[in-house]
Amino acid sequence: MGFWLARERTVQETGFVKRFDPRFWTVNFPRPMMASVVTTAPDSLRVDAVFYRKNDLAGLIWASEDRYDHPLLAYETARDYRRCVLSFRWRSAGVLPLDAVNGPTLTIEGRDESGTARSWYVRLWNYAVGTPEDAAITLDFATLQAGFSLPGEAVWAGDVDRMFVSLAPPGYDEAGGDLDAPAEGWAELTELRCDGSGSVLKIGDVMMPPHTLRIATGYDDAYNVTPARLLRSMVQLGYRELINHYVGMSHYFRLTGGLAGLDGGALNAPCAAWHRDFAARAKALGYELILSLSYELLDQHCPEAWKQRATDGSPALTGWAPPSTLLSPANGEAMAYLQAVAVAFCGIADDAGLRVRFQVGEPWWWVAPDGSLCVHDAAAVAANGGVAPNDVQAGAMLAASTAALTGAVEAAAPDAETLLLVYLPTVRGREAALVPTGWAAPAFDVLQLEDYEWVTAGNRAASLRGAAEIGTRLGYAADRQHYLGGFVLRPEDSADWAEIADAIERARGRGVAEAFVWALPQVIRDGFTWFDEEERVDTFADVSFPIAIGREASVEAATSTAIAAGAGGREQRNAEWAEARLKFDAGPGVRSEADLGALIAFFRARRGPAQAFRFRDPFDDSSSGTTGTPGATDQLLGIGDGTRTDFPLAKDYGGVARRITRPATGTVRVAVAGSETSAFTLAEAGVVSFDAPPPAGATVTAGFRFDVAVRFEQDRIEVNRATFLAGEAVSVPLIEVREG
C-alpha cells in the first residue's frame, strides 16, 4: 500500500470549470429546518427545503474558496467577479416569491475597494424578467446594484468571499415562532451559465488509478453538498465498487412538535431528494451502497420515552455538541420508528436498481461515565419484570431489537444483505451486554469491525486481540468480515493517518473481504490520497531454513571498523556498524542427495537472495546465555511509565543491545516487576504489546528463543555431483539481514 497527505496541488493535472457550476453550490440553514441541493442537469440544480419556524432561512451558497474538495481536486480561489455575467431561469414553489419583501435575495460578502469588510444585498426581482415564481435572471457583476429597488448602491465585486441566495417560508417573520405546520418548498436554477473573461476557473483534475480500498461517508457530514460533487471526489481519488454510507443521526428525520416521528413519512423531503440523487448517481457509476443506520438520534429532537437512561434517570448522552442520545432497544415505539426509517432508505436504494445492503451501525447500550450501562429506561425495566436488566438480559434485548430491524428490511427486500458494525474499544469487557451471542453467525451476512481509538493510540495488541476475540465469539470467518479504518477527528492529528493506513493493511493481512477508510470528509480535509503499489516480491518469507541442514552450519561475526594510523603510530578507530553482522555457511549440513534436493528447492522458493527467511543460529538462539532455557526475567526490555504499551524484544551483549525481530513462536515469556504475565500480544517485528500499560517504574523483562533473519549471499548454488558424492563439502553462504 501507499498513501500521501496532499496539502496542495503542484504539478498534478489541472482542468477548467465554469464559475457557478451547479455541482459546487452548497446549502446552509439553522436548525431545526432542513435543506439539500442536487444537480438535475449539467446546467441546473434544485434546492428542497422544509421549514418549521417563521424565521427559518436557507442559503444557496457559492464560495470563492473551495473548502469541500480534496486539495488535488479543488477549484482555484478567485474573488474578483467583475468580469462575470451570471444568468439562469428561476422557478420555485413553497418559498417566498421573487417579488416578496423578504423574497430571494443575493447576499454578497467580501470587502469594498478600501479593503473594509462588508455585505451587499441584491434583490433578484430587480433583475428578473417573468413572473415571481418563474423568471429569467441576469446578473452582471460589473454593474450590479444592491437595495430593495433600483437604482441602488453599486456593488464592488472585486473581493468576494462568498454569495448566497436566501430562501424563506411563506409567512416569514424575523421575530420567529413556530409555523402552524411544517412547510415544504423548493427552488430550481436551470439554464445556468456564466459568461465573461472571468468566468473560467482552474480546477484539479487528478484521476488516481482505481484501487481496492473502499470509502465510507456519512450524510451528517455531506448534507450540504451535492451528491455529484461527493461522487466526483470518490471516483477521482480511485475509490470504486462499494460505498459505506452512514445515513446519520441528525438530518434525516421529520419533526412534529419538534420531535422525530413518522407523520408524513419517515424521511424529510430534502433528505429523501438528496439520497434519491445519490443512489441513482452511485448506480450509474458502478457503485454499490451499504446504507448504515445506528441507534443514535439527536437528543433535542428525540422523544423522552425513547431514550436509554442511567441509574439516576438521566438520558444517555454522547460527547458531540449538540449531543445525541441512544434509543432504547426495549422501547417498541422507538424500534418501530427505526424500522420505518431503515425501510425508507432501503426503498430508495431498491428504486435506484441497487441491491439492498443494510448495516446496523454500532447498536449498543450506552456506557455511563461510571461504567454502568444505561439500561434503566422505563421500557427496559418493564420488559425485565420491573428491575433493570443485567448484562446477559440487556444483551438479549439488544439482539432481539436488531433481529426485528433486519427482519423489517428483509421483509421489504428479501434478497437484502445485512451487516453489523461493532466498535471494539467500547464493547471490550462487556460482551454479554454489548456483543450478545444472538448476533452470532448467521444472524448477519457480514460482520464489520472498527477500532480507531486503539489504532490512533498505537495499541496494536488491543486491535489484534479484539478482532480475534469478536470473530471467535460471533463465528464470522475473516472472509465474512469488513474493516473500517479511521478516523482523524482534528486536522492537527493528521499524523494518525500513518497508523490508520497500517491498520488497514493488517486487516487485509487477516483476510477481511473489504477494508474501508472512514471517512470521506476527513480524507478531503487532510488530503489523504491512497494508491495500491505494484505487486512485489515480499522481502521476507516467514519460513525457516531446513533445520537439519542448518544445525551443522559454521558462523562468523563481522564488524566494520575504520582505522586511521597517524605518523607516530597512534590509531583513530571508528565503528561504522552499531553491532556485528553474522554470516553462516550451511554447507556442512548437506550430507545426502535428499539434503541437497531440499536445499535447492528452498533456494528456488526464496528466489535466491530476493527473500530473507528465518535461520536458527546453532551457537546463539536463546535469551538465557547462548542456548539455555528461556526465563521470563532473562532480558530487560525497559521500564514502564504508565502509558507505554509496546516493548521491543532485545538481548544484551555486555552493554550492546541486539534487537530480536524474529522470536520463535510460542517461546516468549514476559514479566512485569518480576511477575510473569500473559496479558500481552506479540506484535510484528518482535514487539511485546501489553493489553494495559505497565505501571510507572515497573521493570519489563522477557525470555525467548529466536531466529536470525538471513538471505542467501549469492545468486547461485554450485554443486558438482561427482565431487559431492566423493565427499566434497558444498558452500552455502548466508548473511544476516538487519531489521528493526
Shape designation? globular
Q: Residue share in helices?
A: 10-25%
Structural class: alpha+beta
Strand order, biggest sheet?
Answer: 17-18-21-24-25-26-27-28
Number of strands: 46
How far apart the termini lie comes to 20 Å
Mean pLDDT: 93
Structural description of this entry:
- With 740 residues, this protein is an alpha+beta fold.
- It contains 15 helices and 46 strands.
- The chain has an 8-stranded parallel beta barrel with strand order 17-18-21-24-25-26-27-28, surrounded by 5 helices.
- A hairpin with a 5-residue loop joins strand 8 (105-111) and strand 9 (117-123).
- Helix 3 (269-284) crosses helix 4 (332-351) and helix 4 runs parallel beside helix 6.
- The longest helix has 22 residues, at 391-412.
- The radius of gyration is 33 Å and the shape is globular.
- The protein starts with a strand and ends with a strand.
- The mean pLDDT is 93.
Helix and strand topology:
Blueprint: E1 2-5, E2 14-18, E3 26-28, E4 34-41, E5 44-53, E6 58-63, E7 85-93, E8 105-111, E9 117-123, E10 128-131, E11 134-140, E12 145-146, E13 153-154, E14 160-167, E15 178-195, E16 200-204, E17 214-218, H1 219-222, H2 227-236, E18 242-246, E19 254-256, E20 259-261, H3 269-284, E21 288-294, E22 296-298, E23 324-326, H4 332-351, E24 357-361, H5 378-383, H6 391-412, E25 417-423, H7 424-427, H8 431-434, E26 446-450, H9 452-456, H10 460-474, E27 481-486, H11 496-510, E28 514-518, H12 520-526, E29 528-531, E30 540-544, H13 547-550, E31 554-558, E32 561-565, E33 571-575, E34 581-585, H14 593-605, E35 612-615, E36 635-639, E37 646-648, E38 650-653, E39 656-659, E40 669-672, E41 675-677, E42 680-683, E43 687-690, E44 699-703, E45 708-712, H15 721-725, E46 733-736
Parallel strand pairs: 17-18, 17-28, 18-21, 21-24, 24-25, 25-26, 26-27, 27-28, 30-35
Antiparallel strand pairs: 1-29, 2-16, 3-6, 4-5, 5-15, 6-14, 7-11, 7-15, 8-9, 8-14, 10-11, 12-13, 19-20, 22-23, 31-34, 32-33, 34-46, 35-45, 36-44, 37-43, 38-39, 40-41, 40-44, 42-43, 45-46
Helix pairs in contact: 3-4, 4-6
